């Protein structure tokens, strides 16, 4: 116990010192943790570090499972399945062929291919937190692709858990995995709400219930003699964030995420070791270099091509792909388990660890410059077919002028469009969410199905000839882009807070909507109405109930059924016919 406490204290002291030293620079925490781990080995034992890494991964996998809400990305689920499966086959197959070509043994080559094909859901979700929170298309794509890859990784872990690679042994482990996942899904659907009600909305009980589920599923995985990561992932799926008064659970998960992120990434850095001989060092560097090449360049390129073939525009394809350019934590679990079972050679294991540390650092750098990189790809016009797709899915008169351009056709966008219709003003809707295309085509005369961050989209909407551009999304990057490119018409954008709103006003915005501020002003109006109503609140209640029912109807229409990009493309074909 004392060794464990000393190790944890050392990890957090090293991490804290480096975080304080780099606090003034825009450096993400993950690279700092990994660098801190490089100086950890002389201070702690290897066996304890390896065990801490596994437990750190398990808890982070649990948190990722909790954060997965399948309903958020059901509109692009079919696209994600096809793209993720094709990427695993193409990248994994190519990596396997290269590994065998450079002389690796078959089993080592398989581990190399797995590390090349899988991406880190933990790093990806951390880097793409804003996009996921805003429910952007590429944020949903990233989360769903990671989820599918993790399911594949769990299947691999279950296969490798077999004591011997026989049909019966592998089938038994896969059966255990199915039992754990099925139990988690059933608990999520039928029992979790009951558990929340039983807790009486007590914050501590809800948090402890989640931790209790984690311990129960990990205990089951130990009893089944499969990786604890499988049980942790299943436990995450058993918990849903979609219930009233979930703030305590989310706060508790954020604290756990911070705690175990430091443990995992510091221990990851500590696992990077320098071989004793020059020959061994060169072998590790060569294998790690090849793996890094596949992860940083080949995998994103393949993903971009696959997403473009599914009909997504260049920017969405690039932003999605750039968040997949790191080695997965599941690949690390698989490598560690293989090392403990003596199924992987030391050079390949060290190469996977080294490549993981390198790509998790470079991935943070890629995220900082992803918009710039996507613009470079778009300007290179390598994928010219995306421009043709933009025009095929759009309908705007080239001589349209004095119109209003609305970016985003959700509740707010559709209501603004209705007001413009009442005033007799032409409207052009810009949206690139596959879930919205059918509705936009049915309701609007003019529309552009594309990304408003792309210059071609704005040109096709005749933005320069419009009277007003209204962005319904509180996306700062989009707002800054519009204010820098749109000169003549008025521009209305949204902001998350008053400080951001003032900055957008200074950048040239005609008006900035702050939802919290507008909501508070509306609440004050309601209070004044109640004060003047002399106890008769019937009219106020009826009006607000009708308003909420209208909004609920729109929300249900937006979330109805699967609308993958493949269906959008088939609709385009029928429209052309």
Secondary structure tally: strands: 6
Radius of gyration: 26 Å
Q: Report the average pLDDT across residues.
A: 82
Number of domains: 2
CATH class of the largest domain: Mainly Alpha
Query: What distance separates the N and C termini?
Result: 72 Å
| Unreliable segments of 5+ consecutive residues | 558-577
Strand order of the largest sheet: 3-2-1-4-5-6
Helix-and-strand structural type: mainly alpha
Q: The biggest beta sheet, please?
A: 6 strands, parallel
Helical fraction = over 70%
Going by CATH, the architecture of the largest domain would be Up-down Bundle
**Separate helix tally:** 26
Per CATH, what is the topology of the largest domain? Answer: Na+/H+ antiporter like fold
């Amino acid at each position: 116990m004392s060794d464990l406490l000393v190790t944890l204290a050392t990890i957090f002291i090293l991490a804290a010192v480096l975080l304080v030293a780099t606090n003034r620079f825009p450096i993400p925490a993950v690279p700092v943790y990994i660098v801190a781990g490089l100086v950890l080995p002389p201070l702690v034992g290897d066996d304890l570090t390896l065990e801490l890494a596994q437990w750190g991964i398990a808890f982070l996998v649990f948190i990722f499972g909790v954060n997965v809400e399948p309903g958020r990305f059901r509109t692009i689920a079919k696209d994600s399945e096809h793209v993720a499966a094709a990427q695993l086959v193409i990248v994994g197959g190519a990596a396997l062929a290269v590994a065998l070509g450079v002389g690796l043994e078959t089993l080592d080559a398989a581990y190399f291919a797995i590390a090349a094909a899988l991406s880190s859901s933990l790093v990806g979700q951390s880097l793409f937190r804003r996009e996921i929170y805003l429910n952007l298309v590429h944020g949903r794509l990233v989360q769903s692709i990671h989820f599918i890859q993790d399911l594949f990784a769990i299947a691999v872990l279950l296969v490798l858990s077999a004591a011997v690679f026989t049909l019966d042994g592998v089938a038994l482990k896969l059966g255990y995995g199915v039992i754990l996942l099925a139990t988690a899904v059933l608990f999520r659907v039928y029992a979790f709400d009951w558990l929340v009600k039983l807790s009486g909305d007590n914050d501590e009980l809800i948090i402890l219930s989640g931790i209790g589920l984690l311990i129960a599923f990990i205990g089951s995985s130990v009893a089944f003699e499969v990786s604890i990561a499988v049980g942790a992932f299943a436990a995450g799926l058993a918990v849903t964030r979609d219930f009233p008064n979930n703030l305590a659970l989310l706060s508790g998960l954020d604290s756990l995420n911070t705690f175990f992120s430091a443990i995992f990434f510091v221990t990851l850095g500590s696992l990077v070791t320098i071989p004793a001989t020059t020959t061994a060092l060169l072998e590790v560097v060569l294998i790690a270099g090849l793996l890094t090449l596949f992860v940083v360049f080949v995998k994103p390129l393949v993903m971009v091509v696959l997403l473009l073939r599914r009909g997504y525009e260049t920017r969405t394809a690039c932003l999605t792909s750039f968040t997949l350019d790191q080695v997965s934590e599941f690949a690390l679990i698989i490598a560690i388990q293989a090392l403990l079972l003596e199924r992987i050679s030391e050079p390949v294991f060290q190469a996977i660890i080294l490549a993981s540390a390198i790509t998790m650092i470079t991935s943070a750098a890629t995220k900082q410059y992803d918009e710039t990189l996507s613009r470079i790809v778009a300007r290179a016009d390598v994928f010219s077919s995306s421009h043709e797709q933009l025009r095929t899915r759009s309908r705007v008169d080239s001589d349209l002028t004095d119109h209003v351009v609305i970016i985003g056709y959700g509740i707010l966008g559709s209501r603004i469009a209705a007001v413009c219709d009442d005033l007799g003003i032409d409207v052009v809707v810009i949206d690139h969410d596959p879930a919205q295309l059918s509705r936009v085509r049915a309701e609007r005369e003019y529309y552009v199905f594309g990304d408003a961050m792309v210059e071609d989209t704005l040109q096709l909407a005749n933005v320069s000839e419009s009277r007003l551009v209204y962005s319904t999304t509180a996306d700062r990057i989009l707002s800054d882009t519009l204010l820098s490119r749109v000169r003549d018409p008025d521009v209305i954008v949204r902001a998350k807070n008053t400080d951001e709103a003032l900055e957008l006003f200074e950048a040239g915005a005609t008006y900035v909507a702050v939802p919290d501020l507008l909501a508070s002003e509306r609440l004050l109006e309601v209070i004044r109405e109640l004060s003047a109503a002399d106890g008769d609140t019937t009219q106020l209640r009826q009006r607000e109930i009708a308003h909420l029912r209208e909004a609920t109807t729109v929300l249900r229409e937006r979330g109805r059924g699967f609308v993958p990009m493949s269906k959008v493309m088939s609709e385009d074909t029928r429209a052309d016919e």
